[in-house]
Write a structure and sequence with these properties.
Residues 1-20 form the signal peptide. The protein is 31% helix and 30% strand. The chain is α+β, with helices and mostly antiparallel strands.
Length: 301
């Protein structure tokens, strides 16, 4: 065999070997990239947290960092459920001044000493009446990611009840079991034909907070704290789902809020509980309200 042929065979073999190495290297790099992407996707990020996973993350962080009552609450939550009751700052005014809503944490459904508040990206932790620390949510998530706690957060999140009933006895207004979540279909800014606004948020109607109250009456010493509180329940009257709202200090039986439609346009329609009479209708805009002045709504009598 001539030298030229031998050299040619050698060059072809070398090229094939290099190609195989290159393919193996590429496959290895892809494998590394995929593993890295999987690792990154498991990391907790603030913009992808649900409300329950946020509460779960905050609780696990506090249990790891502050031990004591927080750790007790976490251990109980793993066995049972993580219950988060949303309490009004008016009920806790002597303890948490100007902190917004207070999130009371328990793992057994009973009132405990563990609370946190949220202000934008800042989480403040409390044990009893003492503020422990204020930490940014991003710092909390970084800490949990560093300790590979994303799966633990996910598991606890599945057992988390946000807006749970936890009746106050030691803290806040006695008998207050926390803020209620108003049905989503009622929430928003609505207008009647005269341009009057009806503002309904997750926990308020016209600035009045909707609470779960476990006692028949609120004690007289709490009247000042509860003057903008109401209780509510869902009732079905003549086949219509109604949200029955009654102010705590009201002399009447309150009002009924329903969502009804005229064509494609939804409206919040209000009625008197005392008489069942139609009161008003509120729409997505004043223009829509004016265009639907002759709309007919169901009777609750």
């Amino acid at each position: 065999m001539s030298k030229k042929i031998l050299v040619l065979i050698f060059l072809i073999a070398t090229a094939l070997n290099l190609s195989a190495c290159s393919q193996n290297s590429t496959q290895h790099d892809k494998s590394v990239d995929n593993n890295t992407q999987k690792q990154v996707s498991k990391n907790l990020t603030a913009n992808k947290l649900t409300k329950t996973s946020q509460a779960s993350a905050i609780t696990i962080y506090a249990a790891m960092k502050y031990k004591g009552k927080w750790q007790d609450a976490y251990k109980q939550a793993v066995k049972n459920h993580l219950s988060i009751s949303i309490k009004s700052k008016t009920g806790f005014s002597r303890i948490f001044k100007g902190q917004g809503y207070i999130y009371q944490v328990t793992g057994n459904g009973k009132e405990q000493n563990t609370f946190y508040t949220l202000k934008k990206d800042e989480v403040s932790f409390f044990n009893h009446k003492k503020k422990i620390a204020t930490v940014s949510l991003n710092s909390i998530l970084t800490f949990l990611n560093d300790h590979q706690k994303s799966e633990e957060v996910k598991r606890l999140s599945a057992k988390t009840v946000l807006g749970a009933r936890i009746t106050s006895n030691k803290y806040g207004v006695k008998g207050d079991a926390g803020l209620a979540y108003i049905p989503k279909k009622l929430r928003g800014i609505w207008y009647n034909k005269k341009g009057k606004k009806l503002v309904i948020t997750a926990h308020t109607i016209e600035g009045e907070e909707i609470h779960r109250i476990s006692t028949a009456v609120v004690t007289t010493e709490s009247f000042q704290q509860t003057k903008h509180w109401a209780r509510a329940r869902i009732e079905n009257i003549n086949g219509i789902d109604c949200y029955h709202v009654q102010s705590l200090g009201a002399q009447n039986f309150g009002f009924l809020y329903t969502v009804q439609k005229n064509g494609r346009n939804p409206a919040v329609v209000t009625y008197s509980v005392d008489t069942g009479d139609y009161l008003d209708s509120y729409w997505k805009s004043t223009t829509i309200a004016k265009n639907n002045v002759n709309a007919e709504f169901k009777s609750l009598k």
